[in-house]
Amino acid sequence: MMNDIRVEKLLINYKTLEQFKRFKEYGNQELSMLEDLQNNIIENDSESPFYGIHIGHTLIARMSLYRVRAKYDAYFEPPQDYLELWKLEVLPDYRGRNYGKALVDFAKSFQLPIKTNPRINSHGFWEKMGFQKAKYEMERDLGENPLIWMPAGVREKDV
Ligand SMILES: CC(C)(COP(=O)(O)OP(=O)(O)OC[C@H]1O[C@@H](n2cnc3c(N)ncnc32)[C@H](O)[C@@H]1OP(=O)(O)O)[C@@H](O)C(=O)NCCC(=O)NCCS
Questions:
Q1: What is the 3-state secondary structure (H, E, C) of 96-123?
Q2: CA 20 to 30 Å from 150, out of 37, 80, 97, 127?
Q3: pTM for this prediction
Q4: 73: CA distance to ligand 1 center in Å?
Q5: Ligand 1 centre and the CA of 22: distance in Å?
């Protein structure tokens, strides 16, 4: 059953953007992709930072992943490229069936450290996924409470 879960990179097209409307965290990022498509600033089927899981033709889970370059890394030692993960969301009817885990495992498969800003109430999930609270540094984290995951051999930066 678990082996059937396939994570795919999502392309920017009207169909994907229509499917995004079903997710709670729909906002500026999606609207700006839609505008860029409508104004021909980007081509149909351009790459997006989103990855998702489909059941049939329905997108039921997604996340955004962005590779932050080492020169902007303020979390890990030594400074290195890491992944910022956001907008992880499984549609309500499909929760609790390992789709969230499948997306996080996919992100981990790049073997880069990962940083995310968890939503309230999702701490239990992130803890299960092996994420830990980053040591809080006010000037870096301000109002955020970032969680981090590190592959073997990577350490958190001392703050
Ligand atoms: C948080 C979210 C991404 C998790 O995805 P999911 O597909 O439902 O989770 P999975 O089925 O992959 O869960 C993997 C493991 O984490 C656990 N888990 C999932 N959500 C959890 C939670 N909120 N608290 C504690 N553990 C949780 C599961 O029980 C499972 O553990 P197991 O392997 O021992 O059975 C998804 O539920 C979601 O999009 N929620 C949106 C709203 C939200 O953040 N809710 C938080 C709970 S109210």
A1: CCCHHHHHHHHHHCCCCCEEECCCCCCH
A2: 97
A3: 0.95
A4: 28
A5: 18
